[in-house]
Amino acid sequence: MNPRQRIKIGFSDFWPGFNPVSNWFEQLLKQRYEVEVCDEPDFLIFSNYGHGYLDYSCPRIFFSAENTAVSRWKCDFIFSSAYDTAPYHHRFPNNRLCYSAKELEKERAWRGIMSENRGFSCVVISNPFGVERNAFWECLEARAPVASGGHYRNNVGGPVPDKREFCNRYKFCLAFENSSAPGYLTEKLFDAWAAGCVPVYWGDERVGDDINTKCFIHARDFDSWESLADHVMEVDHSPALYESYLKQPLLRLRRLPTELTDEAFLNAFARAFHVGHRIPRCIKRAHRFAKEVLRVRRALRGLRPKWYQ
Predict the structure, then answer these.
(1) Whole-number mean pLDDT of the chain?
(2) What's the structural domain count of the chain?
(3) How far apart are CA 65 and CA 92, in angstroms?
């Protein structure tokens, strides 16, 4: 499509609180197109928090913020954190929704951080099912207190309203992903780094492709949670070691990889707009028919006598 061409887009199945009228995608596309957000779009951008996308027969562009796969027969183009070389896929770790290139490429005022009287360590999470995170948390907490500002195991009087402001009071932050997969790199490590902490990270096996591994403590460098916790304590008691982490830049090349820049995302959207329908429209019609059948089934089930239900 030509630059500045008008394009109608719609959004569906995003997380609670997502604003379909003003959001990262809409702002990005406005750099190149005249964008109109509407209910009858030329292209649908959808995520994995529902099934509303089945109501649309236009080309569908999928964005995944989670470590989940999407059926290639549900969408015409895919943005996800995976390393996938398919021509209808572009890698898009969701940390890019949270931080601009300028924020990620800047240098930290590490000397100022060194002079601050910070507490030991913190964590801000709500998901209780991070097995690896919970195991390390227990090991570290056996050595020194860990301030928990999230909903899970909160010990600071309730969930904190501002994660970065809370983490800004501590030297270390547990930045464990909920799960591990190559490329699955969320905002957790970035939040910790932006707050002036030394992140203690576990998750993406290929985190070193984009991130400078000298700026955080990498759990995969240690053979046990105990040895990792011992190293955190060693850094806490050694100003020289602590400084060695703080003074490192966040990005491995000191700039965003080319494929993660706004320009690269715009080019990927241009490919998606150009290709349009990749999967046959008959399959999309079948999706809509299946959804309608399920809706009717649920409605009929509600009409059964209570004794039958």
Answers:
(1) 92
(2) 2
(3) 9
Using alpha carbons, list the distances in angstroms from residue 91 to 101, 117, 189, 255: 16, 39, 18, 17
Residues 238 and 273 in one domain: no
Tell me if residue 6 falls in helix, strand or coil: strand
Rounded to two decimals, the pTM is 0.88
Q: Among candidates 107, 76, 9, 111, which has minimal Cα distance to 274?
A: 76
232 and 114 in a common domain:
yes
Q: Are both 140 and 211 inside the same structural domain?
A: yes
Cα–Cα distances in Å, from 135 out to 5, 67, 131, 140, 237? 52, 21, 6, 9, 23
The structure tokens listed for 127 are 């998901």
65, burial (CB in 10 Å: exposed 0-12, middle 13-18, buried 19+): buried
In the numeric block, which tokens belong to residue 40? 């009858």
Tokens at residue 97, please?
A: 């929704």
Rounded Cα distance between 141 and 52, Å, is: 43
Residue 126 zone, left/alpha/beta (φ > 0; ψ -120 to 50; rest): alpha
Q: Are 12 and 53 in contact (CB under 8 A)?
A: yes
Confidence of residue 304 (pLDDT cuts 50, 70, 90): low
